[in-house]
Amino acid sequence: MNTQKTIVTIGAGIAGIESSVALSKLGYRVILVEKDKTIGGKINNYYHLFPNNRPAVDIKNYMDEQCRIHDLTIYKNTEINKVQKKGERFSVTTSNDDILKADALLVATGFEYFNGMQKEEYGYKIYDNVITSIDLEEKLRSGKQITTAQGKEPKRIAFVHCVGSRDEKSGNHYCSRLCCITGVKQAMELNSRFPNSLVYCFYIDLRMYSMEYESLYRSAQEKFGIQFIRGKVSEVSENKEGTLQIKAEDTLSGRPLRMEMDLVVLLVGMVPGQGTEKMKSVAALESNSHGFLESNDWQLHKNSSSQPGIFLTGACNGPMSIDETMEHARSAAFEVHTYLQNHSKHE
Amino acid sequence: MPNNLFIYPFLLGILIMLVIIAKRFSKWFIGLSKIDKIRVWKKLRTKNTIYSIREALLEGLLHHKIFKKNPVLGYMHMSLAFGWFLLIVVGHIETIYYYGSISFPFYMPVFFRYFVTGHEFYLSRFFAIIMDFLLLMVLSGVTLAYLKRFLKQPFGMKKTTRLKPGDKIALTSLWCIFPLRFMAESVSAGIHHNGSFLTQTSGNLIEHILPLNAIHTPIWFAYSTALGFFFVALPFSRYMHIPTEIFFIFLKNSGIKLKKHVNTYSQVQVFSCSRCGICLDSCQLNDAGIRNTQSVYVLKKIRDKKLTDEELFNCLLCGKCQHDCPVDIELNNLRITQRIESTLQYNSSYDYLKETKAEKADIVYFAGCMTHLTPAIKKSMVQIFDHAKLNYWFMDEDKAPCCGRPLMQAGQYDAAEKLILNNQKKILDSEAKTLVVSCPICYKVFNEDYSLPGIEVKHHSEYLLELINASKIEVSPLQQTVIYHDPCELGRGSGIYEQPRELLQHTNTLIKIKNEKEKSYCCGGSLANIKIQMDERYKIKDKAVENYRSYNPDILATSCPLCKKTFARDGKLAVHDISELIWMAIEKNEMEKLELNEQLAKVTNPEQFWELEEVPIQD
Amino acid sequence: MNKFGFTTQESRAIDYGQFDDRLLSYVQHHEPTFLICMSCGACTATCSAGNLIDFNIRRLSLLIRRGEILQLSNEIDKCMLCGKCTLVCPRGINTRNVIMLIKKGISQIKQSENQN
Fold first, then answer.
1. For position B557, what pLDDT does the model report?
2. Which of A107, B283, B477, B528 is the most buried (most CB within 10 A)?
3. Residue C39 contacts A where some CB pair is shorter than 8 Å
């Protein structure tokens, strides 16, 4: 009975794949549309995952395998240009001018990293030794040697929390939730590579959302000697030798603080992805005041969008971690299933 | 009613008015500083007086600046003021002709048609035509004024200003004066046949409807009464701006400037405001929904002594209204003097400032507080200085007091002076010849309020242009289209419009836009506005960005760290400071030179040089 | 020093039961944004005056809330109004207005106390 029903999933990141796989298991036909040439989305950028230091490639391999096992139809290098609802069915026009018919749509367009250049005072792309957490993750993943721009081993490293999050000046009032733990994870990784280095984290509030995150924070203090300083970095400047000077207030002692650093890592936040932005106009989806796609019912139907028959999965709905995304993806599949079941009853 | 009793309302009115105005003018004049008084006396005996009379005529009567801005509104003001003025002048000439001498009662020209019956003197018909024509002109102005009250659209004004009782009396009587004069002259023409195409025609018409002789004197009495009311109300109404403006023009042309405190000259300016409302139109606070702090309202509140800090400090001091003001009131400085007055009680002493050592150099570079939050500007400038091998001292690289301009904008003049003295000494101690500044806010105060003899103050956009012209740096074109955004303090504030554009033309293709130079937007980030909220600032910015984006430029270029920071928040438009673009162009030039050298090095056979020409080389 | 009717207390404990809310209500009325401070300290870090002397602009909003008018009146004159704090504030607090209001509020309080 279910085989004739088709679902188009927009975005083949981990949220899109996992929910598509689940729907496929339930017997639906699923078409995955991905704008990039590869699937997996942001998981491809990561090295080790918190809180258990598992290689991100594990997740990537799992996703590839699932796609293969369930023989999912995937259109790569394809975007959605138009969504029309005809009766109860959707007609989706792709950038290749294909028209896909679907009984339900699943939006899995994800997030983008906050552009560090927008906080000019931190000197990203101005000073060579200022990098973002994404740049650092890529360096860790590629296995290349990590040095300062001058080719030296970094002795003093600063992590700047809340870059583009909780910041009215960036236009983002919300907390991206995962930068704090990312900072802790990366601080520990850098410290284990450079045991003689001093690593500082400059934070406003440390937000460790899970039990394991808190443990990680504790071991960062205990085993790695990471220094946590409560104060938002206001600006970074460059010394003649290419080292950096950062300014913050040590709010706990109530005094302004200046420090010389070899490397500054900006923990960039999460903002709605380009695809998410596009879905707002293409499918007339409502967004919340932060720009992420709005759930129809915050408590009971988190996966339902403002349009009947269109469902949300993953970080297009708001910042979330990988484990949260997996739960969200499976619940989305069930939500779609329930919708299609009710729908066929009415027929 | 005896024949000439009806002139008394007019006589009394004009007498009261003259006494009040004379009292006010003398009070204002006495309140000027001694130097300013001498200035006025000295200038009064020079050609300057002729200029002032000319300006008073052009502005007070022809309103040529309002004309430029809005022809319909300009015509309304002109037909009323200039028409009336000509009526008086021609009326006098006519009376002189009639009497054959200049000795006649001074009210005679006003009521000429009542007393002189018939066309019995030389050129009388000619004068009648002219007078009718002028009356028609004034009446057309009055009609427009009626319409303006009811329909605001054709006048391009978003809104007109509100009225108080003195204004209402003056306005009502002004509206009555000319229709009544028209009626009175028509009735006289009906009886004496001394009118022309306008009054005679209507006089002949009225003759059939009304008993002319019975209403003759009463209607002239009504006219005289309207005049009387108008004159008495004038000093207590907005029309006080007419005599005040003339007084103001004389003072202004004597070279008097606003002082740093409220004095009678600032009062003269406050009363010179005609409340035309032109300042409302260009004010960008409208975009943020702020509609009660514009210059015309603030001046009114100052006159009424009802100004609050909320209104006084809610202004970007962008200077757009000052540029548009047809009366040339120094609106920015006027507001600053009010702010000085309002914050006089709590100026800081900055006793903690210490004298720190200056470095000796040819050039002092002062980046400015804001520039430390836009390091791309700071780094570009340092790289350019180093590249050009200049001997410079980066004065505020680590720490330095603020330049003092933000304090001045907030009215804290005495406090600002303390910072100025500290910085000034250091700059002088450096024995530099040039002070290069990256922030227009600093630039203005260094230029105007610092005493730096022998030191040229230059904004980096001027300075970089000089470096290019002196071949100290070489640039290659970057091939992007740019819009140049004039920062308020550099453009309208300091008159630097051309140098940044000339500089940009060395590297980029400049797009000409409608709202540039004097008409340029404020980014909304201005430090001068202390009351505005962030979301209101963003509304102002959004509107400007929207306009810039409609021209589809690759880059929005500016030369102010604050403008850059404000615009960059948007993320929809690439924003760069002029210094960054110049550094990119220098780097490109270096790369090209390097490539050329490499190619030259590869060439071993001299004949191959010819082939090299095919390689596109930009210069 | 004791012009404002304060006496030095032996105990360091603050009695919030009876604090001086004159300045708090004045500033709050005219610039409520100062209440949304999350004490990140970016303003103090970037402060031009704080570069030259011991001055903590972040603590001012705390002092207003605690009614520490005497401390405030010693601190407030250090600010140069340069505006950097407004530019870095992640909560969009109109810091310069807060400063101007504190200055004015204190001068008014001083005036009224001198009259009494």
1. 97
2. A107
3. yes
Q: Residue A231 to residues A159, A177, C38: CA-CA distances in angstroms? A: 12, 18, 10
The stretch B503-514 carries a mean pLDDT of 95
If you average pLDDT over residues A220-233, what whole number do you get? 96
pLDDT at A2: 46
Does the pLDDT value for residue C13 go beyond 80?
no
Helices C57-66 and C22-30 sit at what angle, rounded to 10 degrees? 120
Q: Among A118, A121, A123, whose Cβ lies nearest the Cβ of B571?
A: A118
Residue in B closest to A168 by C-alpha: B534
Whichever domain contains C105, its CATH number is 1.10.1060.10
Report residue B360 as tokens.
């000796």
**H/E segment holding residue A312:** strand A310-312
What local confidence, expressed as pLDDT, does residue C58 receive? 94
DSSP code at position A317: G
Q: Domains along chain A?
A: 2-110+273-345 (3.50.50.60), 116-269 (3.50.50.60)
CA quadruple B594, B600, B601, B605: dihedral, nearest 10 = 170
Q: Which residues, including other chains, have CB under 8 Å from residue B209's CB and lie 6 or more apart?
A: none
Q: State pLDDT tens for residues B110-148.
A: 888 888 877 677 788 888 899 999 999 999 988 888 887
pLDDT of residue B269: 94
- A interface mutation test: which of C39, C40, C56, C84 has the most A CBs within 10 A? C40
> B531 and chain C: CB distance < 8 Å anywhere?
yes
Cβ-Cβ contacts under 8 Å, A235 against chain B = 372-373, 375
Q: Are C42 and A233 inside 8 Å of each other by CB?
A: yes
Q: Does C79 touch chain B (CB under 8 A)?
A: yes
Q: Do B571 and A115 touch (CB under 8 A)?
A: yes
Residues of A in Cβ contact (< 8 Å) with C44 = 249, 251, 256
